[in-house]
Amino acid sequence: MACRRAMSRLLPQWSSRVFSVELNGAPFYFSIQEKHRGEEIPQVFRQVQNYDRCYSLLVCSSDRIKQARFHSELKEKLRRDLPTECDLSPMSSFLPNVKDSLVKGYFLKDMSVGSTLSEKLLRDVIQHDPVLVCSYLKSEDGQLWTQRLWRDAGSHSVETSKDYYVVPSEAPEYHPATLNIINSDVFYSFEEAYEVLKESADIIPEATSVLELLPSRAKARSKPDFPVIVIEGLDATGKTTLTESLRDTLGAALLRSPPKCLSPLRACFDREPPLIRRAFYALGNYITAEEIGQEGMKTPVIVDRFWHSTAAYAIATAVSGPVCNLPADSSAVYRWPRDLLQPSLVVLLTLDPEERKRRLRDRGEGETAEEQELDHNQLFRLKVEEAYRRISGPACITVDASPPADQVLQQVLLLIRGKCHL
Ligand SMILES: Nc1ncnc2c1ncn2[C@@H]1O[C@H](COP(=O)(O)OP(=O)(O)O)[C@@H](O)[C@H]1O
Ligand SMILES: Nc1ccn([C@H]2C[C@H](O)[C@@H](COP(=O)(O)OP(=O)(O)O)O2)c(=O)n1
């Protein structure tokens, strides 16, 4: 039902949509055009010319929790059940420059003989799951491709719409992922993040535990009397080392985000899709803010990671490809949430990648999946750092963390004394 509603929203503007498929690590954009006899159609899809047919699966449900979870589950299902001759790539579809128009899914290249297995699986998927399926067929001379949209016709049969030609499309002005970042990857108020966890509570029991730990929004806290200093940076840049030294030197309270009370729940949310996972981290900041409010009435407060981490990792994960795909400097995605406590100073520790890796090795810990990703994916690391730098209100001040720990401490103490009158 939720799927039918979502589809009835998508279908009226189907032919205005742009489709993006990640082929060989780069996006290939195409749109569709009605068939007119005798019309010249530019040749497309050279990248999939070795295949006889392809399919696209776009996940669409008006229930955003179901949609996000099913997008992850579908990948597992296709990897498990499709013949080995099938190849899967991420894909999406969007209306250029239209906010929240992005739908995500997978593009399937099929080399299996007769394609019967994959067709059977897709027929099953379309009948039971919130998915829009299209097949792509090559013309007899192998030059042109057409797209045919499938529809569930009930009683285990599907009907197809008319064919459209697939035509190449220009890369859009903004990376398509940026259309949906606000309130899907990054949340700009307590309420927006809270709603996501509330909606997930039926299927994720741990969401209820998080909701119970949240501060009441009824009483807005006044600004703490003492300065609040946040230390940010990638894993192993020296945040723990520096925050502990600052605590001891300044006689400050040391807090972190996510707060300790969320530690037992973190692994559960790290397994969830971005919508739910990022809402969890966003809410963690509000719990930490409440703790800052209390401690900050008595002493200065040092905070190990806060909002910058939440937004920077979320934006860098959502946007694929190089740093230039990030939303422009002036984009609203880098703004500070209107209802979140603003620290007096945010310091970003930066480190040469080789030195960071050496410190990780020396620490001898296993890396988190995301940190392995950071290692393997230089682009991701660069995007996280760039997103850190673009977040404003307050913006972070970058400090080179490669000198010995006591020198980094002195450098940051100078900044604190200059900015916070300590
Ligand atoms: N300035 C520094 N110079 C050399 N090694 C450092 C420095 N700061 C931290 N380290 C070491 O690097 C590793 C990572 O530091 P840590 O404070 O745990 O980083 P984070 O909290 O950012 O993950 C630790 O083994 C730590 O002892
Ligand atoms: N305030 C925070 C802190 C961490 N996060 C997220 C961002 C990344 O997905 C991970 C990084 O956490 P990681 O385990 O590397 O953190 P530590 O270095 O252990 O502090 O957590 C967040 O979203 N908001």
UniProtKB/TrEMBL annotation:
Entry annotated with the keyword Transport: no
GO cellular component assignments: mitochondrion
Record-level Gene Ontology MF annotations: ATP binding; dTMP kinase activity; nucleoside diphosphate kinase activity
Stretch forming the signal peptide: none
Keyword field contains Heme: no
Keywords: ATP-binding, Coiled coil, Kinase, Mitochondrion, Nucleotide-binding, Pyrimidine biosynthesis, Transferase, Transit peptide
Biological process annotations from GO: dTDP biosynthetic process; dTTP biosynthetic process; dUDP biosynthetic process
Catalytic activity as recorded in UniProt: dCMP + ATP = dCDP + ADP; CMP + ATP = CDP + ADP
Listed PANTHER family: THYMIDYLATE KINASE, UMP-CMP KINASE 2, MITOCHONDRIAL
Protein name from the UniProt record: UMP-CMP kinase 2, mitochondrial
